[in-house]
Specification:
Elements (H helix, E strand, L loop, with lengths): L9 H18 L4 H32 L1
Helix pairs in contact: 1-2
Length: 64
């Protein structure tokens, strides 16, 4: 398992949280309800990260 590093952006933070949720879901694979909830949380974190990245792309393209 790799060493966790501090995220440098909000998008990176949400991606890190998504990865942690996936790891936890694998560790709790005996309980389907918890595993499914963690996967759903991971998907929400990933969606947030993607939205933030899109916002930055729009902002950066408007600055040119």
């Amino acid at each position: 398992m790799g060493r966790l590093q501090m995220p440098t952006s909000r998008a990176e933070y949400y991606r890190l949280q998504a990865r942690l949720c996936v790891r936890l879901s694998l560790a709790s694979s005996q309980d389907n309800d918890i595993s499914e909830r963690l996967i759903a949380m991971a998907q929400r974190f990933k969606t947030r990260a993607e939205a933030i990245e899109r916002e930055h792309q729009v902002y950066d393209s408007g600055r040119n």
